[in-house]
Design a protein that fits this description.
This protein has 273 residues and is of the alpha/beta class. 32% of the residues lie in helices and 29% in strands. Strands 6-7-8-3-9-10 form a six-stranded mixed sheet, sandwiched between helices. It has a four-stranded antiparallel sheet with strand order 2-1-4-5, covered by helices on one side. Strands 11-12 form a two-stranded antiparallel ribbon. The chain is globular, with a radius of gyration of 19 Å. GO terms for molecular function: ATP binding; ATP hydrolysis activity.
């Protein structure tokens, strides 16, 4: 990965599913390498859709600029050399071992199992993710959390310049959640643009450098977590009266007071603390 700083800017992003408009002209400007950026928000807010649009997995309109290039105009192969993507839903290719799946992911559009270069690269990535002991296990025999870690290795193996992860910790126990977030922080620090979708607000609060809140396809808050995670925003998005409490050690936790009857956020309303 590059040590030089770079940035990603998404402008005027529009995504439709049939006649339904999911993302309407959204802008994500100047997402910096070296920082861990988290997308949060309610179900159906458009978080996963944005990642899939950046990865080139769905049709979208607008521009996605990185180092003076528009990813929207790139071929699938060109974009695959730049972008690593970890999906939310992970299907097991039952005939493959974990190592084989990462070897295939280390290539772009011409996967071939068995080359020494790709095998060494895959083994190094499995070591980095902490699952070298699973290398010869078949994907179909893994737990949900183990399969999620294998998927993380697949997304990392080509050392992407832009790393997109959709709920990478959802199936993990507490220890592995912390290890994965620490790894992603390290990846970002090495010069990669890292964008993570998280529902766990405490993970977002304690690990994100930049937090972007989405609601119904619109950005309703963005900035440092402590500035964005306000009681007003949480109530408006989730319909929950809550606050963020900070411990003496500096970590934060969410305190739920009660559900709110006012669960609507007016279109265009923006809360930044």
């Amino acid at each position: 990965m590059k040590s030089n700083s770079s940035s990603l800017s998404v402008r005027g992003l529009n995504v439709h599913y049939g006649h339904e408009k999911i993302i309407n002209g959204i802008d994500l400007l100047d997402i910096q390498s070296g920082k861990l950026t988290v997308l949060a928000g309610s179900n159906g807010a458009g978080k996963s859709t944005i990642l899939r649009a950046i990865a080139g997995l769905i049709r979208a309109r607008g521009s996605i600029e990185w180092e003076g290039k528009d990813l929207m105009t790139m071929s699938t192969n060109e974009r695959a050399k730049i972008v690593g993507f970890m999906p939310q839903s992970i299907s097991a290719t039952y005939g493959l071992t974990v190592l084989e799946s990462v070897i295939i992911a280390s290539q772009t559009l011409t996967p071939v199992i068995g080359t020494t270069k790709h095998e060494d690269q895959a083994l190094s990535t499995l070591e980095r993710v902490g699952i070298i002991d699973l290398a010869m296990k078949h994907l179909g025999g893994l737990s949900g959390g183990q399969r999620q870690l294998a998927s993380l290795a697949q997304s990392l193996v080509r050392n992407p310049k832009i790393l997109l992860l959709d709920e990478p910790t959802s199936a993990l126990d507490l220890r592995h959640q912390i290890e994965v977030m620490a790894l992603l922080k390290s990846v970002a620090s090495s010069g990669c643009i890292v964008i993570v979708v998280l529902h766990d607000l405490m993970l977002a609060s304690n690990w994100a450098d930049h937090l972007i809140f989405l609601h119904e396809g619109h950005i309703v808050g963005a900035g440092e977590p402590k500035a964005v995670l306000t009681s007003n925003l949480l109530e408006k998005i989730y319909g929950v009266k809550a606050s963020i409490a900070r411990t003496k050690q500096g970590t934060e936790h969410l305190v739920i007071h009660k559900l709110s009857t006012n669960m609507m956020l007016k279109e265009g309303e923006y809360y930044n603390g």
